[in-house]
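ok so for the tutorial part 2 we go from a plain amino acid sequence to predicted structure tokens. step 1 is just haveing the sequence, like this:
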Amino acid sequence: MYIIIGGGGEVGYYLARNLLNRGHEVLLLDKSASRVQTLTEELGQSILRGDACEARTMEEAGAQRADVIIAVTGEDEDNLVICQMAKKRFNVGRTIARLNNPKHEELFQKLGIDVSISPTKAILSLIESELPGPHFVLLMTLKKAGLEIVEMSIPALSPVVGKQLNQINLPRSSNLALIIRGDETIFPTGETVLMEHDEIYALVNHDGEEELRRTFGTD
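step 2 — the prediction. this is what the tokens look like for a chain of 219 residues:
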């Protein structure tokens, strides 16, 4: 697989190195001469000086035959330009963008970026999941399916405590996939009784997320 990475910072460097170690053909692009010189000794011909936002650079990099283009610069605007150009000019099948500001996520989705990854959002979700008390955490977005995987804990005063699943009016767009109760793993059925502090893993679409929060009292 041929993968082009735009942005030779620490994220781009470690990503390129790991992908090369896995046997992929990788080209890392960075417009800083000093950065390219620093990394050339280790990456050799797998790094090229050039601005990944420019069509000429991408053409020189062979974007027309790339399987994946990944944009991991420190600027969301640049990452968006790189991925849009990859799609529209070079017909690249898969684009992945680093999202520095989580507020831009909806814009990236609307403009056709296949996958956007927000380190800030991931860290916040991890912190929230480790805090004591009730929580509702987005673990993953399944873009093609239009679904999210969420984790939530049931508060002691939740209206669902002590009820069977078939007694709860769940959003039509949601599906409870797994319950963790202490050291016990439960694959729920309609007769499963929910208990306080149960950890619930569910599939839900974006529109049903707020309704799911209200149902379980995790607002």
